[in-house]
Amino acid sequence: MKKGCPYGTHRVISPKGVLPQPADVIDNTMEIYDNEVLIDVKTLNVDSASFTEIVRRSCDGKKPADIENSPEDQEKVKKTMLDIVAKAGKHKNPWTGSGGMLIGKVAEVGPNYVGDLKKGDKIATLVSLSLTPLRIDEIIEIRPDIDQIDIKGKAILFQSGIYAKLPKDIPQTLALSVLDVAGAPAQTAKICKPGDTVVVLGGGGKSGILCCWQAKKQVGVNGTVICVDGFKKSINRAMSVGVADEYTVVNATDAMAMYEEIYEITDGQMADVVINVVNIPNTEMASIMACKDNGLVYF
Question: What is the mean pLDDT of the chain?
Answer without folding.
Answer: 95
